[in-house]
Design brief:
The complex is a heterotrimer of chains A (324), B (565) and C (302).
Chain A lengths: L1 H28 L3 H5 L6 H10 L6 H13 L13 H36 L4 H15 L2 H15 L12 E3 L2 E3 L4 H34 L2 H8 L4 H39 L4 H10 L3 H29 L1 H4 L5
Helix pairs in contact in A: 1-12, 5-6, 5-8, 5-10, 6-8, 7-8, 7-10, 8-10, 10-11, 10-12, 11-12
Chain B lengths: L1 E12 L2 E13 L4 E5 L6 H9 L6 E10 L2 E2 L5 H10 L1 E4 L13 H12 L4 H14 L5 H4 L9 H13 L5 E5 L7 H18 L2 E6 L2 H7 L2 E6 L2 E7 H6 L4 H9 L26 H11 L12 E14 L6 E14 L4 E5 L6 H8 L7 E6 L2 E2 L12 H4 E4 L13 H11 L6 H14 L16 H13 L5 E5 L7 H18 L2 E6 L2 H7 L2 E6 L2 E7 H6 L4 H9 L7
Parallel strand pairs in B: 3-8, 3-9, 6-7, 7-8, 13-18, 13-19, 16-17, 17-18
Antiparallel strand pairs in B: 1-2, 1-4, 4-5, 9-10, 11-12, 11-14, 14-15, 19-20
Helix pairs in contact in B: 3-4, 10-17, 11-15, 14-15, 14-16, 15-16, 16-17
Chain C lengths: L1 H7 L1 H7 L2 H18 L1 H4 L40 H37 L1 H16 L2 H15 L2 H6 L1 H29 L2 H9 L3 H12 L1 H24 L11 H8 L8 H29 L5
Classes of the chains: A mainly alpha (324), B alpha/beta (565), C mainly alpha (302).
């Protein structure tokens, strides 16, 4: 068990190192930092001095270690475009993205899992077939089109919900939340639905396939042959066995939520990290791009470590060593 | 108690309906163990499922009566049938590894089953569960009841499965191949337990199995099935001891006896398969080709010497810096196979017999030890090059005929592969001709070369696998459980074929099996392995007359025998 | 060979009984044919500035009041025929998606086959790289590659290479699917006796991988290829929508939708919705086919 956690930790550190290296290469080799930081009037000597000060003449490995060290200490450097510290820029935008992503993920799980169970248990029913066709269309519509559709329907035609920005926000320390005001919540509905809908279809199809697989296993057949009540067979035997692989995949899906939040934020002009990233690409703001990369990878790795711990908690085969 | 009359079950297919069970009549009395025996496709499991009310959606009972006591099983509603399951009829599945919910303690599974059928307090159910586990032979049940299924060994797990089937005191238990996944020693214990439960509790058992040895050991009465129809029915001693129906006779003749060595099994000719003794012209051609092998290499197999072979498998690391767990699969094994003879290699699952085969075939690398082929060093896996001459000399017939042939290649392409690979025949027309000739030699018509493996039965595929091995012009043939996936009558045919080929060409053969009776039919010498260690090795007849080692004696004693005189 | 056999038996039978799959196949074939044949069948050439004029701007589709028989689906603000724009746009989208999917397939399957077959260190390396790739989802990878190319390449060169950059970006974000599937399937096949027999006989590893294993893992790979083709189309559309994809003078479906967004609030609905509906119908059809193939290769779900 300890071995399992350690192994995953080592793997996570490896992924983080690789991503940091990628980000460093990006930072160091794509566009010359010195020419980005200085204007045309800076003399060659000044440029050379700056180069020396920034440590750009040091050996490659040393530069990378310094880069990684700075990242670990939370020193993310400065944006080429705005000259602001990247750490602060991200921090002001982090709450918006996290709130959007979390609410979207919750929507997708809260609807996707029950729908998956339902369609697995009644695969031939009319409702199931409709849901299945619905999800197939769901995975085929690009997120931005879903966004446009929702804006068109609820924003333009019906005029029920705001279609732009976060609305009113409440500050708790440095965390600006839109969860504590009515206007903020109203603003959150359409973006979160847009982002959640795609994940929802994936979750549902996954749960369904897994559950159908489990319902055919020997231990379920044995439970039926013992006359265990159907409710128990479905929810105490089949469901936990279904959720074990599903939990892992949901961890992987978090990456998808983050990625598509870029699109959603763009459609709804949601002031999160994704929008910042898009701007940084448009203006070739390499430091912001590379830091964004590291932060996203960190979240992904962190969530997946969390998932592994959940896995450990729910699967006795990992928790309890063989003792027979 | 249970009476089934005129039961007919049909399955709907995309092209129509097929009758899986036809007009089956049988009864099971209190405390009776009723064996249902037959080869694959005989419909034995379907009868069990029909009685349980658990036929798959495509299946339907077309006719017949089923009564348990005074309950008509056919008129029950779905809810009534579900309530009856577990309460009055229960079931034991084949594989204890997969029959239990891995995420729930065995105690919870027992208690939920009891509470599903009886209105008693949870503590009372738990007490009964503990008592039951004690009764069926799980020591320290009070503590063990909180364990998860993976914490039990295979045999113990099957006991837990039996406890689950038993915990509501059903009148009838249907056991579907309950010991097929178990080693002989554990099988003997589980069968004893079933016998005891039938006697002490008066439970009726329907024992579904393909293994006539198991039936002979514990069944009171037996029903022999073939193609969904009852062939013969009666007291076990009568049916097996003095079979009346030709099919039962043939079946009995195909069962390998443990107490003597047959020259060949008396099997009736099977349609479409040529008798291998009277050689057709192509078969003779294949034979001549094999005999004419370079340096007469094919006519007398080489000697194989295994010296102090040790194999370790490494597992998971215990911690970040901890050592890897390692598992010794073979521990210092030394043995020799005399040229042109058959060495039988026996042992339970996990004894390392297949690993030894893989070491010789260069599929597993030994940690230590040496091998010699006719005195010359035989390189282990990592040092054996692709062009090593031993690649051709050593050939293998695998256990599972469904996975040993590439299902995407035509039989012809599978067969000519060794000819091309080893440069034995360069001319394409000649390759084609030889491949077809070899098919004749193993008893298959030449046309099969143009088909794909999935169009053949298990026995036919195994013949193709043998033909492929022969087309390398081998000297040493490794047979790894070549018949354990086959029905007994097919097994007899394949064993006959292997015997004939071995005598004819003098192939040195390593014959691996878990079944001592099969090994006895095949081997000149025998080697017993246990937990990766060599127990004993020596001449076969002496071994069966009186094994030196206590473990071998146990093994011999636990193997079910079929003898009614 | 394997496909041919499949066609004769189960596949065709199941297909003939699945109206959704038949419809999807017809739609896909019609759309793909329309896109491929666009230069020959489209009423006008939207890249040719002389073929349209502002006078025809913002005409509604034929069946609406004020529709012009020359423009079946109406025109945009420049007077371009929408149908022609859509056909040419779909052509571009499909080219990018198929080439990207092809690159991802070759790259992913080779790596997955080798990793699954040889195992050990090679497997560990490939899988760790896949892990890293997974931590950076498809859109992010594609955006990043676009960003990098902007940083490295001078502006003019970047504009010229846009098509190549975006194709590569999509390919790189899709290879992991193929690699993981190929590896998992190879791992299963590798332990089957027919592969063990081939190894034992001393056949060349390359031959074992390509002649023995590959034909046996085609099924799941075909499913992935179909689903990934749909993903690639979506990805390209999304990138173009975000403005990092193709420029407005050679619009793909995504670009057309982005342009149409300006008309979301005005009455000219067809400029936005025509390309959108076209895109969705195409992707739904491909996904339906993918679903059918998935069920076909996983008989336990039938």
């Amino acid at each position: 068990m300890v071995g399992f956690i350690l192994k995953r930790l080592v793997q996570s550190v490896f992924v983080m190192l690789a991503v940091a290296f990628l980000a460093f290469s990006l930072f160091r080799f794509v566009g010359d930092p010195v020419s980005q930081m200085t204007g045309v009037e800076t003399s060659l000597e000044d440029q050379a001095r700056l180069r020396e000060e920034l440590g750009l003449n040091d050996p490659f490995a040393l530069q990378f270690i310094r880069f990684a060290g700075d990242l670990v200490q939370g020193d993310f450097g400065y944006s080429f475009r705005t000259r602001e510290p990247i750490g602060e820029m991200l921090l002001t935008r982090l709450p918006a993205t996290l709130e959007l992503g979390t609410v979207a993920l919750l929507i997708s799980l809260a609807v996707g899992i029950p729908a998956g169970i339902y369609t697995a248990l009644r695969p031939r029913g009319l409702v199931s077939q409709s849901i299945l066709i619905g999800t197939l269309i769901g995975v085929s519509i690009p997120t931005f089109v879903i966004g446009i559709l929702l804006i068109f329907l609820f924003g333009v035609q019906l005029g029920w919900l705001p279609t732009y920005g976060r609305g009113d926000t409440v500050e708790i320390g440095w965390w600006r939340t839109s969860l504590l005001s009515v206007d903020g919540l109203r603003s959150l509905v359409l973006p979160a639905l847009t982002l959640g809908l795609f994940q929802l279809t994936l979750t549902m199809r996954l749960v369904r396939a897994q559950m159908m697989e489990v319902m055919r296993t020997d231990h379920i057949r044995f439970a039926i042959a013992r006359g265990v009540p159907w409710r128990r067979i479905r929810y105490r035997h089949a469901l936990p066995n279904t959720m074990i692989p599903v939990v892992t995949i949901i961890g992987l899906q978090f990456g998808g939520v983050i990625a598509f939040s870029i699109v959603t934020e763009s459609v709804f002009q949601w002031p999160g990290m994704g929008l910042l990233f898009l701007e940084s690409i448009r203006f070739v703001d390499i430091p912001v791009m590379s830091v964004y990369l590291v932060v996203i990878a960190f979240f992904f790795v962190f969530i997946n470590l969390l998932v592994d711990l959940i896995y450990l908690a729910i699967d006795p085969r990992l928790r309890v060593r063989e003792s027979a | 108690m249970l009476s089934v009359a005129g039961l007919t079950v049909r399955f709907r297919h995309r092209t129509g309906a097929a009758t899986a069970v036809e007009d089956v009549t049988m009864t099971v009395a209190r405390g009776e163990i009723h064996g249902l025996v037959g080869e694959s496709g005989a419909g034995k499991s379907t009868i069990g499922a029909a009685i349980m009310g658990l036929l798959p959606p495509a299946g339907e009972i077309a006719a017949g009566d089923m009564r348990l006591g005074d309950t008509d099983l056919r008129t029950l509603s779905a809810a009534q049938a579900h309530h009856l399951r577990g309460k009055r009829i229960s079931m034991i599945f084949q594989d204890p590894q997969t029959s239990l919910d891995p995420l729930m303690t065995i105690g919870d599974q027992l208690v939920e089953t009891i509470l599903a059928h009886e209105d008693i307090p949870a503590e009372a159910a738990l007490t009964r569960a503990v008592d039951l586990l004690e009764e069926i032979g799980i020591a320290n049940a009070r503590a063990r009841i909180r364990s998860y299924p993976h914490q039990f060994s295979g045999g113990m797990r099957q006991r837990v499965v039996i406890a689950l089937a038993l915990c509501t005191n059903p009148e009838l238990i249907i056991a579907d191949e309950p010991t097929t996944a178990l080693d002989v020693a554990v099988q003997a214990q589980v069968l004893d337990l079933i016998r005891k439960l039938a006697e002490t509790r008066g439970i009726g058992f329907i024992l579904i199995t393909h293994d006539i040895g198991v039936i002979a050991q514990i069944a009171d009465r037996v029903t022999v099935l073939r193609d969904g129809k009852v062939v013969e029915q009666g007291d076990t001693a009568r049916v097996l001891g003095a079979p009346e129906h030709p099919y039962t006779k043939a079946l009995m003749a195909a069962v390998p006896p443990l107490d003597r060595r047959l020259r060949r099994f008396a099997v009736p000719r099977v349609e479409g398969e040529a008798e291998t003794t009277d050689l057709t012209a192509p078969a003779r051609e294949a034979e001549d080709w094999l005999m004419s092998g370079a340096g007469g290499g094919a006519s007398m197999g080489p000697a194989l010497d295994i010296e102090a072979i040790t194999v370790r498998f490494t597992g998971e690391r215990r911690g970040l810096f901890g050592p890897r767990e390692s598992f010794v699969a073979l521990d210092d094994v030394t043995m020799s196979v005399r040229p042109g003879t058959v060495m039988g290699l026996v042992g339970e699952s996990g004894s390392g017999k297949s690993t030894l085969a893989k070491v010789i075939a260069a599929l597993v690398h030994p940690a230590a030890g040496e091998m010699r082929l006719d005195g010359a060093a035989l390189a282990p896996m990592r040092r054996r090059t692709r062009k090593d001459p031993s690649r051709r000399v050593i050939q293998m017939v695998f256990q599972d005929p469904y996975s040993s042939l590439n299902s995407r290649h035509k039989v012809l392409s599978i067969l000519t592969e060794p000819l091309r690979l080893y440069g034995l025949e360069r001319d394409e027309a000649r390759q084609d001709r030889l491949a077809r000739a070899m098919l004749a030699l193993v008893g298959l018509p030449a046309e099969v070369a143009d088909r794909y493996p999935h169009q053949f039965s298990g026995g036919q595929r195994q013949r193709i696998a043998v033909a492929r091995a022969l087309l390398s012009r081998p000297g040493l043939l490794i047979c790894d459980e070549p018949t354990s996936a086959l029905d007994v009558s097919i097994q007899a045919q394949i064993l006959n074929l292997l015997k004939e080929l071995q005598t004819k060409f003098g192939l040195t053969t390593l014959f691996i099996s878990h079944d001592l009776a099969v090994v006895r039919q095949m081997s000149d010498d025998i080697t017993v392995l246990k937990d990766g260690k060599l127990v004993e090795t020596g001449p076969s007849e002496a071994f069966f007359d009186g094994p030196r080692h206590a473990y071998s004696r146990d093994l011999l004693a636990q193997t079910p025998t079929v003898r009614f005189r | 060979m394997m496909l041919a056999r499949l066609m004769q038996t189960e596949g065709v039978w199941l297909f003939s009984r699945n109206p959704a799959a038949i419809l999807a196949a017809i739609v896909t074939i019609v759309v793909v044919a329309g896109a491929v044949l666009a230069p020959w069948i489209a009423p006008t050439n939207p890249y040719d500035l002389s073929s349209f004029s502002l006078i025809d701007g913002l005409l509604p589709p034929l069946w609406e009041q004020g529709g012009d028989p020359r423009f079946l689906l109406g025109t945009d603000d420049q007077g371009r025929d929408m149908l022609s724009s859509i056909l040419y746009g779909a052509r571009l989208s499909l080219i990018i998606a198929s080439v990207a999917m092809g690159i991802a397939l070759v790259l992913g399957v080779s790596l997955g086959l080798a990793a699954g077959f040889f195992g050990g260190r090679l497997d560990a390396i490939v899988m760790r790289v896949a892990d890293v790739q997974l931590a950076l989802p498809a859109i992010l990878t594609a955006l990043l590659i676009d960003g990098i190319s902007r940083g490295i390449l001078p502006r003019e060169v970047h504009d010229d290479l846009r098509l190549a950059v975006i194709t590569l970006a999509i390919a790189l974000s899709l290879w992991v699917n193929f690699a993981r599937t190929a590896r998992a399937s190879t791992f299963v096949e590798r332990n089957k006796d027919y592969v063990q027999a081939a190894i034992m006989m001393g056949q060349h590893p390359l031959r074992i991988m390509l002649r023995h294993i590959l034909p046996n893992i085609v099924g799941p790979l075909l499913v992935i290829a179909t689903v990934d083709l749909a993903s690639a189309i979506l990805l390209e559309a999304t990138l173009s929508f975000l403005g990092v994809g193709l420029p407005a003078d050679s619009p793909s479906l995504g670009t057309l939708i982005r342009i149409g967004m300006q008309y979301l609030l005005s009455g000219e609905w067809w400029i936005l919705w025509m390309p959108t509906v076209f895109l969705v119908v195409l992707v739904v059809s491909i996904n339906l086919l993918g679903d059918f193939l998935r069920d076909l290769f996983n008989p336990s779900l039938r």
